[in-house]
Amino acid sequence: MLTADEAGVVLFTLEVAALTTLLLLPPGLASAFALARYRGPGKSALETLLSLPLILPPTAVGLALLEAFSRGSALGGWLAGRGIEVVFTWKAVVLATAVMSFPLLVRSARTAFEEIDPRLVGLARTLGCSPAATFFRVTLPLAWRGVLAGAVLAFARALGEFGATVMVAGNIPGRTRTLALAIFHDSQVGRDDRAAVLAGVTAVLAFAALWTTEWLSRRLERRAEE
Amino acid sequence: MIELSFELPLATAELRVEAELPAAVTAVMGPSGAGKTSLLEAIAGLRRKARGRIACHDVVFLDSARHLRLAPERRRVGYVPQDAGLFPHLTALGNVRFGARAGTRQAETAIETLEIGPLLARYPASLSGGEKQRVALARALATAPRMLLLDEPLAALDVELKERVLPYLMRIRDEWKVPILYVTHNVGEALALAGHVLFLRAGRVEAQGAPLDLLSSPGLSAEAEAGIENLLRGRVAAHDPAGGITRIELDGKLALSVPLAESRPAGSAVTVAIRAEDVLVSTAPVKGLSARNVYEARVEGLERTGVDVTLRCAITGSGRPWLVRVTPAAVEALGLAVGTTVWLAVKSHSVRIV
User: Fold this and answer.
1) How far is A130 from chain B, CA to nearest CA, in Å?
2) Most buried among A111, B210, B256, B353, using CB within 10 Å?
3) What is the DSSP track for B94-132?
4) Which of B201-205, B260-264, B303-307 has the lowest mean pLDDT?
C-alpha cells in the first residue's frame, strides 16, 4: 500500500498532469491550426523548432527554463516584482511538463487538422458560419481523434517528466516532488521496493489514460457509423 | 438577376465570365476542366482570387473596383458540391439544421420538400448517394438562400436514383422560386430543368441562351445525341383498371393516359418522362390512331441537333413546350416551320412515370 506521503505524490502528479494538459490546449490547438493552414516560407523550419523539445535532452530544456525564470533574468525579475515566484515551486513543475508536452499535442493535432477536407470548411462558411464558428462546429469536431490523442500523449508525458522538472523545480518533498522524482529519490536512498511500487503506480496511470482514450474513441466512432 | 463579370486564375487557364443570368434555372455546361466548379465556388465566395463584379439581385457579392468582398457566410448562397459535402460528424438532421438561418420552420419545410423525414437520425456514412444529395439540398434550402449553386447533383447517381432525385429538383425550381445555377453534363437534365444555358469551354463563355437554341452549338449537339426527354409534372387523376390505363392531369390541365399504375394513389404528384423521339408529329388532326394522347400544338422553334431536328412545340392551353425529335426528311415532307400548327401523338406506353 501507499504511505500518506506517497499518496500525496500521486495526487500532486495527477494534478500537475491534468493542469498542464488543460493549460496547453488553447495555445497547442492554436499553434497546430496555424501550422496546418500556413503555407508560406519557413514552414518546415518552424515545425522543426516546435519539435525541438522532443529531441533535446530534457535537462537542457530545464536549464534554459531555469535561466529564463530565475530572479536574475529579465522575465524572472519582472515576475518576482509582481510577487510571482516560479522556480522551485509547483508552478515550475507545470511549466517544465508543459514545455516538454507541447510538441506532442501540436504534432498530433496538426496532422488531424491537415487531414480535414478543406471543402467542408468552405461549405460551413457558405452555410453562415464565421471563421471562428467554423472552427468550433466543423474543424475541431472533425479533428477530435487527433486532438484527443495529442492531449492524452501530453498528459502521459506530463506524468513521467523528469529531466526538465528536476532542473527548474528541484525535488522538494511535499512541494515539487512528482512520481518520476520520487522514484529517483527512493532508488537513490536505497528504498528500491518503494521505487518499484511507485513505478507500478505510474504504469497503471499511464495505461488507464491511454486505454480510456482508446475506448472513448471507439465508442464515438461506432456512433458515427450508425 | 445574377450579374457575373469576373476573372479567376485557374491551374491551367483563366476563368473569365461575362454573363447576366435570369432569376430562374441556369444550366452550366461544358467539358471537364472548363471551369464550371470554379465558377460556382467564386460565386459562393470560396475563391479569394476572383476579381471583378458578382451580384445577385441588389446584393453585391464582389466588386473589386470598390474593394468590396462579401464574406461567404454573408452571401447566403446554398452550395451543394458534387459529392454532397455532408458533415460526417453530424446526423442528417444536424446537417440540415447546421445552417438553418431562417429558423427551424425553414428547415422543416426543406425536410418536407425533399421527403427526408425518415433519414434524419442517421449519419452520412449510412446514407445512399441519392439520400445524401437530398439531405444536402435540404441543408442548402434551410438557409433560405438567395441563390442555389448545384454542382452536378445527379452525376454520382445511377439512372434509377437520378429519376428519383430529379423530381425533387423540379419541385425546388417550381415551389421555392430561388435562382439556381446547375452544373451538368447531361443535355436532358438541362432541357428538363433550365430556362437558360451557360456553355463554358477552357474558362470562357462559349455560348449562352435558351437551351434549345444552343443545341446546335458543337459542344451540346454531340451530347444531345444521347437522348432528350420531356419531363412533365402532374397529378394522378384516376385509374381505369378495365381500360388498363391511369389518367394523369399534367400541370396546365393537360390530360395524359399512361399504362395502369395503381401503386400511385389518385391525387398524388408524379413526374412523367417522354422521350423526344417517341412523339409523333402530324400536320392534320389525328383520327383512327391507337395513340391515346393527342394534342394540338404550334411549332415555336426548330433546331438541327446532330443528324436530327429538334422541334420546340407549345401545346395549346399548356405551359411548358415539348421537345420533339424528327428527321430532316420529315421536316421537309411535312413542311414544318416556326408557326406551323401540328398535332402531337404519344402512345401510353411511351410515357414513363419516374
Assistant:
1) 6
2) B256
3) HHHHHH-TT-HHHHHHHHHHHT-GGGTTS-GGGS-HHHH
4) B303-307
Distance, first Cα to last Cα, chain B: 32
**Which site among B37, B40, B87 would you substitute to test the A interface, given the most A Cβ atoms closer than 10 Å to its Cβ?**
B87
Q: What is the ipTM of this complex?
A: 0.79
Which class for B25: exposed (0-12), middle (13-18), buried (19 or more C-beta within 10 A)?
buried
Answer yes or no: is A74 within a domain: yes
Q: Which residues pair with B247 in a beta bridge?
A: B238, B257
Residue A126: inside a domain: no
Taking the Cβ of residue A218 and every Cβ of chain B, the question of whether any pair is shorter than 8 Å is answered with: no
Instruction: State the DSSP string of A106-126.
Output: HHHHHHHHHTS-HHHHHHHHH
Number of structural domains (chain A) is 1
| Residue A149 CB coordination number (10 Å) | 20
pLDDT digits (tens, 9 = 90+) for B36-66: 999 999 999 999 999 999 999 889 999 999 9
Q: Residue A155 and residue B214: Cα distance in Å, rounded?
A: 65
- Rounded to a whole number of angstroms, the distance from the CA of B193 to the nearest CA of chain A is 24
DSSP, collapsed to helix, strand or coil, labels residue B214 as: helix
Sign of CA dihedral A49, A54, A57, A63: positive
pLDDT given for residue B223 in this prediction: 57
**Residue B334's closest CA among B322, B347, B323, B343?**
B343
What's the rounded Cα separation, in Å, for the pair A71 and A76? 5
**Rounded Cα distance, A104 and A98, in Å:** 10
Domains defined for chain B, CATH in brackets:
2-217 (3.40.50.300), 230-353 (2.40.50.100)
- Cα B241 to Cα B259: distance, rounded to the nearest angstrom: 10
